[in-house]
Amino acid sequence: MNKAGCDKRARQYRSQYNLKGLLSPQGLVSPTRSLNLNRLLSPQGLVSPSRSLNLYRSLSPFLLIFCALLTFSCSTGNSETSDNTALPVAPEITLELKPGDNNPRNSEGDFVQLNDGRLMFVYSRFFGASRSDFGSSSLAARYSEDGGRTWTDEDELVVANEGEVNVMSVSLLRMDNGEIALFYVRKNSMRDCIPMMRTSSDEGMTWSEPIACITDREGYFVLNNDRVIQLGNGRLLMPVSMHVTSAEESTFNENGVIFCYYSDDDGRTWRSAPEVRNPTGHMTQEPGVVELKSGKIMMFIRSDAGRQLESYSTDGGESWSPARLSNIVSPLAPASIERIPSTGDLLMVWNFNDETDERIKGKRTPFNTAISQDEGKTWTRIQTIADDTDTRYCYTSIYFVDDQVLLGHVAGQYSDGTRNSITHITRIDLDWMYSSSDLKMNLCLHSEKSVNHESSPASSDRGKEDNIISGFSPILHLFKWLKPVFEVFVKI
User: Fold this and answer.
1) Which of 15, 45, 385, 395 shows its CA 20 to 30 Å from the CA of 227?
2) So what's the architecture of 95-434 in CATH?
3) d(Cα 261, Cα 12) in Å, to the nearest integer?
C-alpha cells in the first residue's frame, strides 16, 4: 500500500474512533482537549523531551505492536496503486541571477503569462558599483517557453532608469481589460520615491508613458514587488508604506506609515484610504493584501513584533481596521500570500523563524510555505523549501502555472554581503506543498478567545492569549495515528 493508501486507512481510523479528544475543529492539536498533554508539554506549552521520553517508555509495547502491524499492512497492500502514484517533485531552482560585471545586484521581480503561452519575469537589474537600495538600476526581463523550467539567457530592457536614483520593485498584473499593468517605484532620494504604472496592450512589446499612482502627498513610499491586486469587482488595490525622513536626518527612517491606494478606472487615477492606525507600538513596513472569499480584504504587514501584523477592510480597501498582531510567526521580514486557483486555499511564503535559534536570530531563513483552508485563521501543511543559515530568503513573488508554483525571490548570502543581490526562480509542484501532514508543525494554537481573530477586537496584548508552538513536534504527529491504540490499551 502506498502513502495515499495509508492516509486513507488513517482517515478511516480517525472517523471510527473519533479523535475529537486530540484535534480541535481547525484540525490542530488542542492542549485543552481530553488528551492530557500536561504529561507531554512543559509549563511554557512546548514539547518537553524528558516528559516525551517517559510517555514513550510507558507506551512502548503498544507502539511496537502498532508500528509492526502498520508497516506490514503498508508493505503488503496493493502494489499496483504504488506503481501508478508519483511522488511530488521537490522544489527546483530553474534560474539563478547572480551579480556580474557592472551588475552588482538582481532582485525584486514578478511574473506574468503572455497570450502566446510564454512567461515573462521582470526584475530590478542594478548597474554601476552599488548594490544598496539607493544604487542605480533599471527593469529587465527574462522569458520562459516551457512553464518556467528554463529561461532565456539574455536580459531584455523593459524600463530604463528614469529616476534620479533608480527604478525598482516590480509588480505585474494581467488586468480584467486584457492589458498588462507594470508597477514599480521611481526613486529620486530618501524623501522622494513614488509608485509608477505603465500598461501594455501588445503583450509587453511596448509600454505606455508612466502614471504616478500617488499624487495627493509627497514622500518616500515603499511598494514591494508582487503587491498590486485586482478585486473581483475590478478595483485595483496598492498597499504602501510611507517613510518620513526629515531634512536633518541622514539615515533612512525604517518605521513606516501604512496606506492603501485604490483605483476604479484601471489605474488612470488613484485615491487613498485613511492611514492604517497602529496601536501596537511595533514597527510597520512593506504591507501586502489578499481578497478573502467573504469579500473582506486582509492586509498583512511586516513588523518587529515577532509576528506579522494584520488589518482588515470590509469596504473594498476604502477604510481599514487598526493593525494588530496576527497568528503568523515571523522575523522582521516580508511575507507573501496569494490564493491557489485550483484549490481556492491561501498559500503563504515566508520565513518561519521565531528567533529562538541563535544561529538564525534576526535572519530571513528558513524559507517556508503554508496553506490556509479557512481564509487565514489558521495555517497548516508547513513545508521548508530551503533552510541554509547563511542565505537570506525574501521578497517573494508567487505565480501559478497549471499544477506548478513559481517563486521569484532573493537568495543572497549574509557572509559575502550579497544578501539582496541574488535572485532565484524556484519551481515547485503544488502537490509537494500539500504533502506535508497537518500535524507536522503547528504555526499557532489559538485560545478560545482568539480563534476568530478576524472579528476579535484589536489589542497589543493579543500575543498573551495565543499559545505559540514555535518548532516541530513529531510526538504530536504520532499521536494523530496512534490515538485509537491508546484508547484501547491505556486510560489517558
Assistant:
1) 385
2) 6 Propeller (2.120)
3) 49
